[in-house]
Amino acid sequence: MRHFSLIGAAVAAAVLSSCSPAGEPAAKEEAAVAPPPGRQAVYAAATEGAEPFVRALYGVYIAGGPEEAPPAPGQDPIYSRMLNAAIITDFNLAQGRNGGEVPTLNYDPICGCQDQGVFTLDSLAVTPTGERTADAAVAFTNAGATTRQTLKLIKEGPMWRVVDVIDADGKSLNDTLIKAIEAQGG
Q1: Is the pTM higher than 0.85?
Q2: How far, in Å, CA of 13 to CA of 76, rounded?
Q3: Phi and psi torsions of 118, nearest 5°
Q4: Most CB within 10 Å of its CB: which of 1, 129, 177, 184?
Q5: Predicted local confidence at residue 19, as pLDDT
Q6: Which of 160-181 are b and which e, b meaning 16 or more Cβ less than 10 Å from the residue's Cβ?
Q7: How far apart are CA 95 and CA 177, in angstroms?
Q8: What rounded mean pLDDT belongs to the chain?
């Protein structure tokens, strides 16, 4: 008897799904495949290519900002090993002085901000600079202020990562961190 109940449930499910409007099941499948903007979508895009990676990075801000807490300083997979090393060294040196000071990197370098408002990605141009490197020139508007910067990218293993952020004035995040580390005796 139980066997017939299972068959009946399967037939009922098949009949109900055949009553759906044409194209609806495909739309549901597509929605399930595309991850929502967030860290998992960024990590997935980082394996697809430099441009999908950068688009996913900024897609998080367009969607209203990161919902997840960022990883601990120096442990963020969107950054290269070298940039993560500079971030954690700067952080540890700042925390070790006089009960803790603010580290040099006290903002989100991807949006160049501490606070986020309405966000749009206005332009993106990715230029390969080597076999495993690229530059992504971006312009975006955050809370009415337009910012231009260049993300220096490197492919480490299967993932694209940010190795440096160059602001509109040509100032390198990596160079700024290294100078701060050296000034702190690190």
Answers
A1: no
A2: 44
A3: -60, 130
A4: 177
A5: 40
A6: bbbbbbbeeeeeebbebbbebb
A7: 15
A8: 83
State how far the Cα of 66 lies from the Cα of 60, in Å rounded to an integer: 6
Class of domain 35-181: alpha beta
pLDDT in tens, 72-123: 999 999 999 999 999 999 999 988 865 678 999 999 999 999 888 999 999 9
Q: What percent of the chain has pLDDT over 70?
A: 78
> Going by DSSP bridges, is the β-strand pair 159-167/145-156 parallel, antiparallel, or unpaired?
antiparallel
Q: Which two tokens stand for residue 70?
A: 């960022």
- Please list the ranges in the chain whose pLDDT falls under 70: 1-36, 97-99, 186
For every residue of the chain, DSSP letters joined together read -HHHHHHHHHHHHHHHHHTSPTTHHHHHHHHHHSPPSSHHHHHHHHTT-HHHHHHHHHHHHHTTS--SPPPPTT--TTB-HHHHHHHHHHHHHHHHSTT----S--SBTTTTBSS--SEEEEEEEEEE-SSSEEEEEEEEEETTEEEEEEEEEEEETTEEEEEEEEETT--BHHHHHHHHHHHTT-
C-alpha of 184 from chain center? 30
Within its chain, how far is the Cα of 18 from the centroid?
A: 39
